[in-house]
Task: inverse folding
């Protein structure tokens, strides 16, 4: 099976999962006790107003009709209208998507940049102090709840040192890049300001992954260094750095990518709560506040968008996996 | 069901691994702390001491070994007030004058209960499901596991939040689990056994146990048990002894109960241990967000510490340390069991 065919197959599977997600989300709302009309209208609303409102929300239709309407809507990118504000849910949700993607990517970059060298060093100097240091760091990192880490960074870093804000988001990455490149503006609205805001949330979200990656890189490298081909590359006189980073690391990446793919849910879930800690205006914070307000249209829409994102990233990870290891059996 | 060989290898792993010893020690200390909370804590965990009239203001006291200074403006001018931490409040007090250490100790109860019960319920739901899927295979497997895969399309925290949203409108269901020590102390049962009985009697008579949250974390995590159990069942069903049992006419239920389940226990036990840690983290995240219904949990106290006043660093720091130590301890025990029970899992790269 070629890569193209494999992607088509994975996409079809992905669509099936997304259909499942939409169905579960639809059911969740219908399992929720209480009539949405009562939650949304003031208690003094008349019976007539209540009926009109229920009619408008489509609540009087039989469940299967509601389900069908909802599926068709979602397929067309229409998640319905926010119960609280009356604005289209898809619009409200999509505005917040870039902030979340930015945060997740920044956290991944932080994790990769720190973890891979740390894991390599740790594997090279097995049972030396630097190795124990890295091992303890990864154990603590995996066991620390990231929202607490965020609160600690706010209290001990942001409050003490002025330049790092305790929450909120600066300019978007794209805007910041444009301002920096076209106007030479670094601080106000530029890339430095962007970095000031994203640094602590990215560390908060990235620490778990840094710890996990360090651990995986170390054990993978230790396994790999003992193999014969490493001896051969060393024997032909290749510099050690090149041996490690070009040959050994590449073969270590395969299990790393597998585990990272499995852990994507943790990254997305972690983003939800990190956003809440730092008042980062992304999807996660939006979801939490929709729950506080019981705005089911927004809750459903946000969860579907998160589910779709999850499925897409999983497919990308699979493709990367195939690229790194051509031996992988695509069946 | 536990053979001597397994027992021996668990014991020898404990002897040789320093980390396993640390993990066991941490968990024993935390379990003892949670169980014996009424004897340990110096104050009632909910008692507030806000200075009103003739009672002394005991809010925001720093932990022992630390001091705070702030400037108070009075009609006579400004005076600098220095407050030092004392043994009476070893971890300081929060903005309501509650003792942080007492809340730290009591918070362990909720985390451990939810962690253990949540993992237990998830095991009971997931294992039979996965065993059936793997054992019967074919269509049954497809039907059962496709449904389970949809659950995995949700990040666990997002699914948990969504489920909380469902249950929220009927109210967070909590139940008070009576504290046997406090009951005994109040009713003068075994008075000669229980030390400090007046002190114990003044402690909360029950622990608020978050039923809704426990169900939610179990519903979120059962799929992992189903997947692991399924994998085991698939390999076990091809074993000779299963075929032999079938040939003498044993029913599916008997085979599942007497052959498949006992032989797949090892990875399930390891998974259950790791899941206790994962569920403690998930519960703390939910209670941080205020989706718990209890007021005495580590997560909730971190949220308060963040929102109350940021200069009182100890309010949010201490409960977080509780979570970190509990999770490290449980994770280390998980590593220990994995290394001891499953030699096929590669440890430190062989040799």
Result:
């Amino acid at each position: 099976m070629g890569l193209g065919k494999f992607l088509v197959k994975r996409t079809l599977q992905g669509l099936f999962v997304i259909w499942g997600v939409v169905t579960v989300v639809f059911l969740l709302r219908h399992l929720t006790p209480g009539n949405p009309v009562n939650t949304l209208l003031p208690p003094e609303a008349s019976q007539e107003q209540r009926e009109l409102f229920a009619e408008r929300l489509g609540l009087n239709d039989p469940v299967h009709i509601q389900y069908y309407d909802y599926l068709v809507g979602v397929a067309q990118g229409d998640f319905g209208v926010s119960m609280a504000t009356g604005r289209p849910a898809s619009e409200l949700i999509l505005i917040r998507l870039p902030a979340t993607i930015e945060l997740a990517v920044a956290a991944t970059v932080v994790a990769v940049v720190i973890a891979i060298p740390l894991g390599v060093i740790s594997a090279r100097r097995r049972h030396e102090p630097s190795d124990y240091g890295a091992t303890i760091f990864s154990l603590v990192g995996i066991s620390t709840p990231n929202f607490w880490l965020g609160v600690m960074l706010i209290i001990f870093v942001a409050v003490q040192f002025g330049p790092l804000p305790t929450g909120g988001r600066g300019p978007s990455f794209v805007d910041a890049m444009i301002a920096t490149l076209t106007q030479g503006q670094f601080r106000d609205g530029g890339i430095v300001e962007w970095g000031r805001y994203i640094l602590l949330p990215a560390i908060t979200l990235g620490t778990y992954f840094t710890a996990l990656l360090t651990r995986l890189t170390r054990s993978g490298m230790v396994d790999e260094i003992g193999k014969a081909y490493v001896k051969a590359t060393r024997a032909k006189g290749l510099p050690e750095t090149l041996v490690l980073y070009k040959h050994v690391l590449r073969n270590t990446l395969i299990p790393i990518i597998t585990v990272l793919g499995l852990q994507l849910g943790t990254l997305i879930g972690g983003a939800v709560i990190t956003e809440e800690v730092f008042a980062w205006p992304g999807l996660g914070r939006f979801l939490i506040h929709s729950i506080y307000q019981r705005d089911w249209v927004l809750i459903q829409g946000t969860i579907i968008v998160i589910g779709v994102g999850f499925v897409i990233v999983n497919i990308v990870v699979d493709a990367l996996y195939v690229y790194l290891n051509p031996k992988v059996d695509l069946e | 069901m536990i053979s001597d060989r397994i027992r021996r290898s668990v014991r020898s792993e404990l002897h040789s691994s320093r980390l396993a010893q640390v993990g066991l020690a941490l968990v024993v200390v935390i379990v003892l702390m949670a169980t014996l909370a009424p004897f340990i804590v110096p104050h009632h965990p909910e008692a507030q001491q806000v200075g009103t009239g003739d009672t002394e203001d005991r809010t925001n006291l720093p932990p022992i070994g630390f001091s705070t200074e702030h400037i108070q403006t009075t009609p006579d001018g400004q005076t600098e007030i220095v407050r030092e931490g004392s043994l009476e409040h070893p971890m300081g007090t929060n903005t309501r004058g509650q003792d942080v250490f007492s809340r730290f100790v009591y918070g362990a109860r909720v985390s451990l209960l939810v962690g253990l019960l949540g993992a237990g319920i998830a095991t009971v739901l997931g294992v039979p499901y996965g065993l059936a899927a793997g054992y019967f295979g074919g269509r049954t497997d497809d039907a059962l596991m496709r449904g389970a895969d949809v659950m995995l399309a949700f990040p666990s925290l997002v699914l948990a939040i969504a489920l909380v949203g469902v249950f929220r409108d009927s109210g967070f269901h909590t139940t008070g689990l009576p504290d046997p020590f406090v009951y005994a102390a109040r009713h003068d049962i075994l008075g000669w056994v229980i030390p400090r009985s007046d002190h114990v009697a003044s402690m909360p008579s029950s622990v608020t146990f978050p039923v809704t949250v426990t169900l939610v974390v179990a519903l979120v995590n059962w799929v992992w048990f189903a997947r692991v159990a399924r994998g085991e069942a698939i390999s076990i069903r091809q074993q000779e002894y299963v075929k032999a049992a079938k040939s003498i006419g044993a029913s599916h239920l008997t085979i599942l109960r007497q052959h498949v389940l006992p032989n797949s226990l090892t990875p399930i036990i390891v998974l259950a241990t790791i899941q206790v840690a994962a569920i403690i983290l998930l519960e703390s995240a939910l209670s941080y967000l205020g989706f718990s219904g209890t007021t005495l949990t580590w997560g909730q106290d971190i949220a308060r510490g963040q929102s109350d006043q940021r200069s009182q660093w100890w309010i949010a720091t201490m409960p977080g340390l509780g979570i970190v130590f509990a999770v490290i301890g449980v994770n280390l025990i998980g590593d220990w069991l994995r290394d001891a029970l499953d030699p096929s899992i590669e440890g430190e790269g062989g040799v």
User: Anything to note?
Assistant: Chain A is about 75% helix and 0% strand. The domain at 95-282 of chain A is CATH 1.10.3720.10 (MetI-like fold).
